[in-house]
Amino acid sequence: MKNKFVTLLASVGMCALLGAQTWIWYPGDYEIWLGNQMNNRRTERGAFFPPFWKTDSHYVVVEFSKEVDLPEAETIQLSVEGRYNVKLDGKLQFGMPDKLIIPAGKHKINIKVWNQLTPPALYVDGRTIKSDASWKVTYEDKEWIDESGKASDTSTTVYMDAGSWNFNSKTSRPSLFRLPCKPLLAVSSISVENGILYDFGRETFGYLDFSEMRGEGKVLIYYGESKEEALDTEHCETMDILSVQDGTVIDLALRTVHPLTNDCYMMESSKAFRYVYVVCDEQISVGKVSMQYEYMPETYRGSFQCDNDLLNRIWEIGAYTMHLTTREFFIDGIKRDRWVWSGDAIQNYLMNYYLFFDSETVKRTIWQLRGKDPVTSHINTIMDYTFYWFLSVYDYYMYTGDEKFVKQLYPRMKSLMEYVLGRTDSDGMVQGMTGDWVFVDWADGYLDKKGQLAFEQVLFCKSLETMVLCARLAGEMQDARGYEKLASSLRKKLEPAFWSEDAKALVHNRIGGNQSTSVTRYANMFAVFYDYLSEEKQQLTKQSVLLNDSILKITTPYMRFYELEALCALGEQEQVMEEMLAYWGGMLKEGATSFWEKYNPDEKGAEHLAMYGRPYGKSLCHAWGASPIYLLGKYYLGVKPVKPGYEEYAVTPALGGLKWMKGSVPVPRGEITVYMDRKTIRLKADKGKGYLYVAAKKQPKASVGELQKVAEGKYRLWIDTNQEITVHY
Amino acid sequence: MKNKFVTLLASVGMCALLGAQTWIWYPGDYEIWLGNQMNNRRTERGAFFPPFWKTDSHYVVVEFSKEVDLPEAETIQLSVEGRYNVKLDGKLQFGMPDKLIIPAGKHKINIKVWNQLTPPALYVDGRTIKSDASWKVTYEDKEWIDESGKASDTSTTVYMDAGSWNFNSKTSRPSLFRLPCKPLLAVSSISVENGILYDFGRETFGYLDFSEMRGEGKVLIYYGESKEEALDTEHCETMDILSVQDGTVIDLALRTVHPLTNDCYMMESSKAFRYVYVVCDEQISVGKVSMQYEYMPETYRGSFQCDNDLLNRIWEIGAYTMHLTTREFFIDGIKRDRWVWSGDAIQNYLMNYYLFFDSETVKRTIWQLRGKDPVTSHINTIMDYTFYWFLSVYDYYMYTGDEKFVKQLYPRMKSLMEYVLGRTDSDGMVQGMTGDWVFVDWADGYLDKKGQLAFEQVLFCKSLETMVLCARLAGEMQDARGYEKLASSLRKKLEPAFWSEDAKALVHNRIGGNQSTSVTRYANMFAVFYDYLSEEKQQLTKQSVLLNDSILKITTPYMRFYELEALCALGEQEQVMEEMLAYWGGMLKEGATSFWEKYNPDEKGAEHLAMYGRPYGKSLCHAWGASPIYLLGKYYLGVKPVKPGYEEYAVTPALGGLKWMKGSVPVPRGEITVYMDRKTIRLKADKGKGYLYVAAKKQPKASVGELQKVAEGKYRLWIDTNQEITVHY
């Protein structure tokens, strides 16, 4: 009975999703516009700092249309962001009507909106007619009339399904969207020289709030993720200056003027900090200083607990780091860039699938990163980031099963791939051309970026394979065949081009057709978890590269993510557990309250704060620092989708040296919970069917069903119930 | 002495032009943005009516840069439209500084501006450093830094020269631009039923102005280009409704609210009209009604006068029609569309070269029409209009010699041609595909739009030839060679494909490789003045098509423009003079105060007002109606450039049956004046050198120099002075 009930709920949920009455817009446009608000909030010592790649914007004129068939007449109410017109069955209505009577029968409603500042958006409220994803939108209807007044054929006009988020009431206008805030007090304050240093206890984000600002003069505000940074007024990365006079406050960075009311003033710009050092002119004092903490409302749907407290703490700080960097979009770090970066985002997405399962923010970030045609550079200007963007669509589809999104996005996937294919060399491989940033990693050592990098070809190949899948989902079979050819041709070239028998590994790159002698971890670890190497070569690589300390060490959590994932995929959970405790535990020992952009255990004290040639250049709250969230969910609790949207799952729990662990992994409309100790596994899955894989010396026993042996010491159990199953092993 | 003085003035003029301190932006961006304001002012009976093609917009983030080498330090003042930052030698300055000290020596200034609503724009005022076209702009500087803080190579970043117009003071912000207005009174008013009909004496444009609005209630306003239209409250094309209460006026079409101050209210929307019919509710009266005439300030640099008063009147009404349709851009007609259309615009440009020589409005219109990449349809969705766009660039270059503009525009010419080339058939010809509007003309008869239209191939071929020239100007020699091949291949196919020995003419079209039997004027007349036919075939065509009354008659001034031009090019000035007097004279007899979109002398009374299946659909002030301006300047005064920018000219005056004529044609920085009667020609050219061509039975005599005989009855005189020359013939 329960099973049936859940199915019913799920289908009700689906209907609600499709029919939700909500503000709609051209798909991707609100996302791109909101991304501009986000990306343009970066500042550097009070200077505005926009991105260096092309900033796209929304289509300024959009037409919304819908065909209806009504049993009886109904009145619809219209709310619109922009100047608009309304056509009923082709007839223009006077002015900008805010309500319209639609007679019974078949009718066509067209609403065309112009808005330069914010995306054209529409909210329609009727008894049965409601704005939702079933409305069609276009930026050019090509509906001309001939001399006789006859309308043209619009059959080749490209109509998309309207985009939306959660603006589900008339008054929640998309352009007014702001993240919510709540007040936070400083945990301590001390006088330092002419100013006061406030400590908010841990890394945080928001608006400084003054409630006892009295007198006149300047207030200098220096923010710091560390105490050192806040107190170093010459070098801290972010700062503000207020000038108070005649009852008004001038924010000198923004050149805005606001009244000072009841001695209260809240900063207009948000900042990331733990410490704030406030220095006032003699004639002014600020008294009590608090802040408004700004955050994305998220439910922590994933969880992890075990017998190791340090690991539990790592998970918690990882989750907090993720939460801080999950904002309007998944961003890199909250202090410095505050930009959306594709290489960072793909990791956020993966962590997110094990923490919030916030699909909307994934989709929004993917739209934002892609921007508009024409493509004039790689995503974020970085070649690898273009490839991560493709891969992230594949991941999204696997975790959510959201085929519709892939279909909507496909034209922009295709034009981006056309850009890439237009820049391949005579081997059909990619090399960095002038204007391309070949990033790979922030490495503590020389990383050759010239010629054909094995790492880039591996990502390129996987991107082509992603295009095959997505072209099929979009029903573009000819495209799929084309991408299939390219992918298989490139894949066949990888080993001959980069495998070195001497090194027993893929070499780093090839210049003028000649393999270099350099071996790095990057290509090898990606080849492992994409299964691009034979079983034998995978094992060779493990020894010659992954577990070989003489190979250039990875010092960013960014690439540690993949390094540790590759080791987990090779069954090295115990080794990875030690690494996690040492590396992330190492940051905690250094006092981290969120995880960092980069961490080299060999560095000491304030060395940890420096990067980019600047003493506080490093971000101490960086999304890519939170990867244990992902590793623990996917390779210890062991949960992953096998078919899109967890229609089929695989659960392969591994203690990796722990005594016990328990946790949950969110899936669409539910969760999978896992408990494991050295004798027992308990599993409960709200959705889908799948195999539980158990490593055991002898045949384990299950409370329901029977385990099959799949290999020496490996058993599996097919689960098609949503009741808890217990396995003794 | 005078000669020297003029040269000096001219060179001073050049300097001023290059070094003018002015607001700058990304080239084309202000034009596209202003175009959106223009194109979105169309209304239809109080409903907003935006275009049906893609509306592009400005780049929202733009970087401006300049390298300077100063003998001594100087302070610059910055005015910016948008949020911005300032870098001096790579170092970001705090906040948004409005002044900056640049030390002596070499320095680099970078200013990055974000503006969603209006184009990022910059005004820099220093002793020697001034914002002008020498500043570089880009929408993506690709200037990233590596881990050590080292900046990337930006050598492939695409920098353009900044765009500008005439916003030459700090306070004349581009986004605030409005055309000027002046008050005009109605010439009469009469009561009709419940309302009052105001007559402004002739076609005009602007804002209705009420100065004695008293009481409360609704005011209904019906505009008409004709009396019939204004009084037909159910069918007039434009209307407004005001609702006055509690001291405020609500414009119901715009849904805006304004205070009623001292009983005065001026309409917010401009309209085109001669008549206005105002109907008030019983409780309200509007008293005196006047208007604010809105216009583009232009100097009438071209002139024409002759012994025929009707022709003089045609020229005057043509000039007024041109002036009314010369607004922020050259538009089609002032009542209905008020949009920028490429096929209309190319004629405005040509008339403009003989009237205002307003190069800025030509450039602005060309940028606006082109919009941004990607190209998703033909210009205005019309195939022929794409080709006219290319041709208009060629014309502009010939008349002005402005090579710099062609260079700036070239990348957008190329991507538009790529769009066209991507849609050619296996013969390398263009056919209308679904979504393409094949316009040709509003014909009073069936015009087949299927298959390969000879007319479209002729325009396509000329466009390819234009690309050859422009690619060379832009230094893109490989492109030029490619276009040359395509152009010559297509040109060779024209006669075999379309010439019919039976018809002695080019046939209208070819379907599936088979010539149709239909012959129309269009392809034949264009082939004549592009010199695509042999001398013999040209003459055949003249008899078989151009002077043959059984071929479908042209009833738009639009195509009459080309028809009469072709006849003039064939030396038929007397015939064309008769046609002009009959056709444009015919409109004047019907009471025209500006020239119309379409005129069929066979129609009667209110039939003249109808079009598009609507009783007042026709525009009675349409730019393409003004072509006598062009014909009289080019084929009677006979002035045209032979080398770009009139460095060399040709003057071939022809009385075409007149007793005498005199007039002037503007050239860059000066004019060419011509007087001619049946015995004498007088010519004075401020600029360039060139030939005066004289048709005479015996050797004419010149006041300076000697005429050479070039053919039987044809003589020419080389002129390289700017003094007046008299020739007796």
UniProtKB/TrEMBL annotation, chains A, B:
Biological processes annotated in GO: carbohydrate metabolic process
Residue ranges of every copy of the Alpha-rhamnosidase-like N-terminal domain listed in the record: 62-278
SUPFAM superfamilies per record: Six-hairpin glycosidases
Domain (Alpha-L-rhamnosidase C-terminal): residue spans on this chain: 638-676
Lineage: Bacteria, Pseudomonadati, Bacteroidota, Bacteroidia, Bacteroidales
Alpha-L-rhamnosidase six-hairpin glycosidase domain span: 302-634
PANTHER family with a match to the protein in the record: ALPHA-L-RHAMNOSIDASE SIX-HAIRPIN GLYCOSIDASE DOMAIN-CONTAINING PROTEIN, C, PUTATIVE (AFU_ORTHOLOGUE AFUA_3G02880)-RELATED
Name assigned to this protein: Alpha-rhamnosidase
Pfam family, one: Bac_rhamnosid_C
